[in-house]
Each structure stands twice: as structure tokens, then as C-alpha cells.
Specification:
Layout: E1 2-5, H1 9-20, H2 27-31, E2 37-48, E3 51-62, E4 66-70, H3 77-84, E5 92-97, H4 104-108, E6 110-113, H5 125-135, H6 143-149, H7 165-177, E7 183-187, H8 195-210, E8 214-219, H9 222-228, E9 231-236, E10 239-245, H10 246-250, E11 253-260, H11 263-271, E12 276-282, E13 285-290, H12 296-305, E14 310-317, H13 320-331
Parallel strand pairs: 4-8, 4-9, 6-7, 7-8
Antiparallel strand pairs: 1-14, 2-3, 2-5, 9-10, 11-13, 11-14, 12-13
Bound molecules: adenosine-5'-triphosphate.
Residues 48, 51, 53, 71, 73-79, 220 line the site of adenosine-5'-triphosphate (ATP).
């Protein structure tokens, strides 16, 4: 939402509108002219007996995106991630990594944390990462980097069993980052963490995304997707309800608060807007609802052309949560 009072109001509207759309995003999204397709899923379906866990699911993830799979419990997020990691076989559909069929080679370019962290309790963090490197036939060169990146370097010689749950989760992410993969897949990365642990893991994900890594994460937390992701696919009962840029979803306008020196003329003029739906009056402010997405600068120039000079214009954006709930209501 943005708000201003008149001055050079036309300029203010445009400036405020532009400013309201600025959102921290992955550097690589800005730096790359041509974004490669990292993952492409076509009509994927998975059934467990009578349960349709994933239902005709298609979406694409491009290089540098932080892609959120958002849905309530049981909506098919883990099943989808398990299929694309070759842990579970789909019944129908296909997927490709890096524009090629999935292979051992493509798998090496992907790091993942799908289950809860599982390390040897009596070994140190450093030693546990050596074990992981041994299993994957990687050398130990990268261990120091991932420990520093995840903020665990100071505690590298502490035994795993002495770690907090948040540190255990960060160690799991460190192990997924060993060998510097191009893609990081995380399933509910902040589940069960306390607020400090949640903040640290979220900061870590944003930091890793800032390095240019493509991230795919499953979450049932709207807030998490809103804060971390650049793109989102909303799932319910295995079906995709919506997919797109998080910032676009947030930019869907719901209503505007308007006021003018001539309220009667404002009411008459705005009622003739092609997308006008209804209005209500609150004191001097007119709350106006539209049938679709309307830009604030467009409203301003529409009214100005009809001789109405605005003294106030506030856009009320729908939150992802409202949008998500609306989608669930409409499509269940
Ligand atoms: P959650 O966040 O609760 O893990 P989710 O969105 O990840 O949910 P999935 O774990 O993929 O959803 O589950 C989708 C559906 O498939 C659920 O109804 C679940 O009970 C079912 N399911 C998942 N795995 C199995 C399995 N191995 N056998 C039978 N049913 C399963």
C-alpha cells in the first residue's frame, strides 16, 4: 500500500507507484539477459492408491529464481519435490533439468534438503561434512566455505548433538551446498524452528539466492514465500491453482481511497470508469472498488481528464494471503 497527499500529485502518484513495486530480488535476475530454464515440469501426476497426490502439474523454474511451492498440508509439495529428485516415480507426465532429461549428471548440479537433518550425533559438524563429501566422492575443499556461508564456522568443532535445531537445519543446508550446486531444493526449511532459527534460515536462503543460485522451496507459510520468493506456484490437492511472480500477485489492487475538492464530481466521474464496481464513503474519503487490476496513475489521469483534481489517492493491495485464500475458496 502507498499513500500520499497532494503536492505535485501526478508526479507523486507515479513515483509512489514505482517505489511500491521495488522488492529485493535475486541479483542474477537483474544480471542475466537470457534466463535459462532450470526445471520444466509437464503434466506430472502421482497417485497413492485412492489419493491423487499430484494432479496434472506443470510449471517452469528459470535461472536465478527463488521459486516457492506454496500449499496447505497434503497439497502435494513434498511428492512433487521427491519426483523431481528421482526419489519417487510419477505415474504420468515428465520433467527435465537444464533442458535435458534427468540424469546422474544433472543430479550432481542440484543440492537438496528434503527430510529432517540426519547426521552422526557424536561427530563434529566438520567431520559430518567430511562424511557427506566422502559419500558423494567430493574433496574437502568446499567444507570451510559452506560452514562460513551458513554461519557455523565458529562451531565447526562442536559435536552435532550439541547443535540447536536451527543449527542442525543450517548444517543440512551446508551439506546441500557442498560442491557449489546450481540449484538448491528445500522442503519446509523453517519447520519446527523458533523465531530466531526461522530468521537465520530465511536470511541464509536470501544470502544464497543473492549469490545467484536458483532455489526451489516448498512451504505452507504464506509469509515465508512472500518474504523469500520471487516466484510462486500455489498448490491445492495436488493441482496448481496459480503460478506467477510474487510481486505481481502482491500488485493486484483491490481498492483505492480517493478524495477531491469536489466529492460529488469525483463520485460521478469514477462511476464511469470501465472497471468501476462500487464505492463507499468514509468521512471525506471515497473507497472505490474495481472489477480488475487498475493502476493508480491510470485512475489519476482518467479523473483529471474529467476535470477532477485528486487531493488524496491510496492504493490498497491484496496480500498474497488474501489472494491465496480466495483461490482456495474459488477452486476447491
Ligand atoms: P505436508 O506439508 O503436510 O508434507 P505436502 O504438500 O508436502 O504436505 P505430500 O506430502 O506430497 O503433501 O502429500 C500429498 C498427499 O499424498 C497427501 O494426501 C499424503 O497423505 C499423500 N501421500 C504422500 N506420501 C504418501 C505415501 N508414501 N503413501 C500414501 N500416501 C501418501
Amino acid at each position: 500500500m502507498f499513500s500520499f497527499f497532494t503536492g505535485n500529485f501526478l508526479q507523486d502518484i507515479v513515483t509512489n507507484f514505482r517505489t511500491s513495486r521495488l522488492k529485493p530480488t535475486n541479483k542474477r535476475l537483474h544480471n542475466c539477459n537470457l534466463l535459462n530454464t532450470i526445471l520444466s515440469i509437464q503434466s506430472l501426476s502421482k497417485r497413492y492408491g485412492k489419493i491423487q497426490a499430484v494432479n496434472d502439474l506443470s510449471f517452469e523454474v528459470l535461472q536465478g529464481q527463488v521459486f516457492g511451492l506454496l500449499g496447505p498440508n497434503g497439497s502435494g509439495k513434498t511428492t512433487t519435490l521427491s519426483i523431481i529428485l528421482d526419489l519417487v516415480k510419477s505415474n504420468k507426465g515428465s520433467f527435465s533439468w537444464f533442458d535435458s532429461p534427468p540424469s546422474k549428471e544433472s543430479r550432481k548440479r542440484i543440492g537438496s534438503v528434503i527430510e529432517s537433518p540426519n547426521f552422526f550425533p557424536y561427530l563434529t559438524a566438520y567431520r559430518n561434512l567430511q562424511v557427506v563429501a566422502d559419500i558423494r566422492d567430493q574433496d574437502y575443499d568446499d567444507i570451510e566455505r559452506v560452514l562460513k556461508l551458513t554461519g557455523l564456522y565458529e562451531r565447526r568443532n562442536s559435536k552435532f548433538k550439541t547443535y540447536s535445531f536451527g543449527m542442525k537445519q543450517r548444517l543440512a543446508i551446508a551439506s546441500a551446498l557442498l560442491g557449489n550446486p546450481e540449484v538448491l531444493i528445500l522442503d519446509e526449511p523453517t519447520n519446527g524452528l523458533d523465531p530466531q532459527g526461522i530468521a537465520q534460515v530465511r536470511e541464509l536462503i536470501i544470502k544464497v539466492a543473492g549469490l545467484g543460485m536458483t532455489i526451489i522451496l516448498a512451504s505452507h507459510l504464506l509469509d515465508e514465500v512472500q518474504k523469500i520468493c520471487t516466484h510462486v506456484s500455489v498448490l491445492n490437492k495436488g493441482k496448481k491453482l496459480f503460478s506467477g511472480e510474487v510481486s505481481k500477485v502482491l500488485a493486484i489492487s483491490d481498492s483505492f481511497e480517493l478524495s477531491s475538492t469536489d466529492p460529488d464530481m469525483l463520485q460521478k466521474a469514477i462511476s464511469t470508469h470501465p472497471l468501476f464496481q462500487s464505492f463507499s464513503e468514509t468521512g471525506l474519503l471515497l473507497q472505490v472498488y474495481f472489477k480488475g487490476e487498475v493502476q493508480p496513475n491510470e485512475i489519476n489521469s482518467f479523473l483529471y481528464q474529467q476535470g477532477v483534481v485528486l487531493t488524496h489517492l491510496t492504493e490498497r493491495k491484496r496480500s498474497l494471503e488474501q489472494h491465496f485464500l480466495e483461490l482456495l475458496e474459488e477452486k476447491i
